[in-house]
């Protein structure tokens, strides 16, 4: 979003302003990992980023706006989707990317903090939902290409297939505490591929019986 009417902190200027934004978002991520959303404080973030408090209040205004902008930045910087030539190969690449992100010492804790924040702050929740919409849309063509190749039935819901890959990995991160290893990533991709091939995501018309 750019220009008149843009949300605070969501414009994409260059030069010094871009450097200030990068420093502020880095500081916001650091503070989230260390303290969690409830303890975020604009003055502390300004100190960490070596930026005047008035700059933060003028451009973002609230900690929720900072977290929302951080999610926008993370979505924009995420790696592009794979194109291995097969649905299983593409979904394995997706699963391994999700697994690598969630097990990263900083990124994993950052996602936990933002998911926690989203449970109690509507703006953060909306930003988190938008983040996943962007990432799912990035990977959905993997499934659409698989339909074109005849790997999965016509009418397969590409977004549901991509969600099915990452869901068990987030469950391990946030709920069960089971190992989030490469084997788990491969199983998630294999399960989603098998279900898609069986027509589970294409409704009754595309289901193999």
């Amino acid at each position: 979003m750019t220009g008149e009417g843009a949300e605070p902190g969501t414009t994409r200027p260059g030069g010094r302003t871009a450097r200030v934004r990068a420093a502020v978002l880095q500081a916001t991520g650091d503070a989230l990992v260390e303290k969690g959303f409830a303890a975020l404080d604009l003055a502390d973030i300004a100190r960490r980023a070596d930026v005047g408090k008035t700059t933060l209040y003028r451009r973002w205004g609230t900690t929720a706006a900072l977290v929302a902008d951080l999610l926008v930045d993370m979505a924009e910087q995420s790696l592009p989707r794979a194109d291995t030539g097969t649905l299983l190969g593409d979904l394995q690449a997706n699963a391994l990317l999700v697994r690598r992100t969630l097990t990263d010492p900083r990124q994993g804790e950052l996602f936990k903090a933002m998911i926690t924040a989203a449970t109690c702050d509507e703006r953060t929740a909306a930003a988190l939902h938008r983040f996943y919409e962007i990432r799912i849309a990035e990977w959905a063509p993997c499934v659409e290409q698989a339909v074109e190749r005849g790997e999965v039935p016509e009418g397969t819901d590409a977004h549901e297939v991509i969600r099915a890959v990452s869901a068990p990995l987030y469950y391990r991160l946030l709920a069960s505490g089971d190992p989030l290893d490469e084997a788990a990533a491969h199983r998630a991709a294999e399960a989603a591929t098998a279900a898609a091939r069986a027509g589970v995501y294409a409704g009754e018309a595309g289901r193999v019986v």
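The chain has a mean pLDDT of 88. The domain at 15-66 is CATH 1.10.10.60 (Arc Repressor Mutant, subunit A).
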